């Protein structure tokens, strides 16, 4: 009860004062509150996109599970044609590979593989656009840090200008989008 009273007396007025600022403040907590308030549509769109991707992943995972279950129940017989035997054997091997790699790998390791292969793919597709650099430390467990290169730091005013432009026209955009 005391915490709720403190929030109403101090935190909410502080948030209102941060929201009234003309630009992003320098301190991290104030900047976080400012960005959260001024880009709430972006946050909601991101949450909706995340839920949509999660839903589609669940549907695809269920479909894959049904296919693998059906594959497990199918057995080779002597009456199968040569082509059907090849398809059943290939399906069985894919199912075994799936069980060994995907089901046998912890989810966090899968996320790391996707994350780092995504960075590697982006670097391979855009070799001249090196706005980030990767520093690998020879430690166990492996430790890697990413930071901006001078090119990336030179782009920061552009990102801030785009963000401030969005904040300046945010109310106008909301008025246009409402019916």
Task: Provide a brief overview of the structure.
The chain is mostly helical and 179 residues long. It has helices at 2-19, 28-38, 40-73, 82-101, 107-125, 150-168, 170-177; strands spanning 132-137, 143-148.
Can you put this structure into words, describing what you see?
This protein has seven helices and two strands. It has 179 residues and is mostly helical. The chain is elongated and about 80 Å long. The relative contact order is 0.06. The C terminus is likely disordered.
Topology of helices and strands:
Blueprint: H1 2-19, H2 28-38, H3 40-73, H4 82-101, H5 107-125, E1 132-137, E2 143-148, H6 150-168, H7 170-177
Antiparallel strand pairs: 1-2
Number of strand elements: 2
Q: Helical residue percent?
A: over 70%
Going across the biggest sheet, name each strand in turn: 1-2
Mean pLDDT: 80
Overall shape: it is elongated
How are helices and strands ordered from N to C?
A: HHHHHEEHH
Instruction: Please give the radius of gyration in angstroms.
Output: 26 Å
Strand content: 5-15%
Distance between the termini: 40 Å
Residue stretches low in confidence (pLDDT < 50, at least 5 long) are 175-179
Highlighted features:
mainly alpha, 179 residues
